[in-house]
Amino acid sequence: MHPFSATRPPKLALGLGLVGLIPFVSGALGLWVTPEAWRERVLEELLAYAAIVLAFMGAIHWGLAMRAGEESSQAPIQLALSVIPPLLGWVGLSLPINLALPVFFTAFATLYFADVWAVRHGLAPVWYPALRKPLSILVVLSLMVAWLAVGRVF
Q1: Does the keyword Membrane apply (predicted)?
Q2: Less Cβ around it within 10 Å: N or C end of the chain?
Q3: What is the pLDDT of residues 15-66, one digit of tens each?
Q4: Is 5 inside a domain boundary?
């Protein structure tokens, strides 16, 4: 079977994706248990990591656009999808915290559907949504938990 048509993500991709969740989960939970003097720092690091991951996710779409080729009608969409996530991360970092967190979790939730679109158009591997869905859910939930913590402690 060609790796692009496999339905289950490679174990390495899944493992690395799970490792990439550590800052999201620990940051969100850390806002609830960290001493007050450190909470602002925990939140800054969580938001910085979220912005970095959005840039990474945008780069994936840049690669998919390159794979599609200039003659593809999907390439311009993929190129737009490569620039929007890092821009949202940048905007999110400049907003007040109570607005930044919804921007981030909305961006990650929406990006999952962009990934599914890329699979439907043959630009990303069939297994990609099986990897992205649980990771996206945990990222969005972590950012929502952080948002609740911000409302409680800040």
Answers
A1: yes
A2: N
A3: 999 999 999 999 999 999 999 999 999 999 999 999 999 999 999 999 998 8
A4: no
With respect to residue 145, please indicate whether it lies within any of the assigned structural domains. Answer: yes
pLDDT tens by residue, 66-76: 888 777 888 88
Tally of CB atoms within 10 A around 5: 9
In a domain, 109, yes or no: yes
Which amino acid, 44? Answer: E
Number of domains, the chain: 1
Q: How far is CA 109 from CA 10, 33, 34, 127, in A?
A: 22, 26, 27, 18
The three-state secondary structure class of 79 is: helix
> How far apart, in Å, are the Cα atoms of 1 and each of 4, 5, 6, 7?
8, 7, 7, 10
